[in-house]
Amino acid sequence: MSRTPVIAGNWKMHKDHLEAIQLVQRLAYHLDEQDYEGQEVVVCPPFVAIRSVGTLVESDRLPIAVGAQTCHWEDSGAFTGEVAPGMLARLDVRWVICGHSERRALFGETDDVVNRKVKAVRRHGMRPIVCVGEDLDQREAHEHEAIVAEQLGASLAGVSIDDPEDLVVAYEPVWAIGTGETATPDDAQAMCAFIRGQLARLHDEDTAAAVRIQYGGSVKPGNIRELMAQPDVDGALVGGASLNSDDFALIVGHRR
Ligand code: PGA
Fold first, then answer.
1. Which is nearest to 154 in space by CA: 193, 115, 117?
2. Whether this model's pTM surpasses 0.85
């Protein structure tokens, strides 16, 4: 089963709209056609930079998709400060990260909230990147598989997957995010394969075989090749290293 890898940059709360434009211009300067071939490249700027990045991508015909880092699950309403999924879709946002561990830990997002967001994103024709991953205590207590299975099952409850390309799961061990500590390629592979097994249980074998599963957590130019060489790792969700155009270009261009 050949799956098209997805490499996504999660900029978190970095880069205003002017810096965002500069970053994408520099990234595009470093990359050539072959780098984009056979894989999808996504950048997820803060909300306020989405429009600017989208306009640049469109005018320069860059093969880069624009994503968002979260969204609300309702289509509209009295939700001060929130952004509706339809508003993102109107800006040609193709991807939305759902349930990033920072949203879960710092903003109280439960699996139920993540589930509603995933459904809202699908309802508006966008593709969720559903994040799952254990923290250090859970890993040390050997609970990582149970935790990830629970997060996955609850986040995807009632989500139908007609086209498996419309859903990406990101395995992001919390202890590896922003810490410089990466899961070993073997650990990343083991967990991505475990997630694929869970998808087969929740849906079916064919769907599970076709869904892209990313690894995230301190992905850098120096470790991307080894991670991507793992059979069940179908891309990366990159935080810190996506803020630097040289580094992200090396990650996207890792096959050179
Ligand atoms: P990091 O972040 O690459 O800085 O570890 C990854 C993420 O949070 O998605």
1. 115
2. yes
CB of 9 sitting under 6 A from ligand 1: no
Instruction: State the number of CA atoms in the 13 A half-sphere of 140 facing the CB.
Output: 4
238 lines ligand 1 (CB under 6 A): yes
Provide the residue-wise pLDDT of the chain in tens; the chain has 256 residues.
Answer: 689 999 999 999 999 999 999 999 999 999 999 999 999 999 999 999 999 999 999 999 999 999 999 999 999 999 999 999 999 999 999 999 999 999 999 999 999 999 999 999 999 999 999 999 999 999 999 999 999 999 999 999 999 999 999 999 999 999 999 888 888 999 999 999 999 999 999 999 999 999 999 999 999 999 999 999 999 999 999 999 999 999 999 999 999 9
Nearest CA to ligand 1 atom 7: 239
Tokens representing 75 are 């289509």
Q: How many residues does the chain have?
A: 256
Closest C-alpha among 214, 72, 196, 195 to residue 129: 214
Residues 6 or more apart whose CB falls under 8 angstroms from that of 143 comprise 134
Between the CA of residue 3 and those of 38, 214, 249, what are the distances in Å?
9, 11, 21
Nearest CA to ligand 1 atom 3: 239
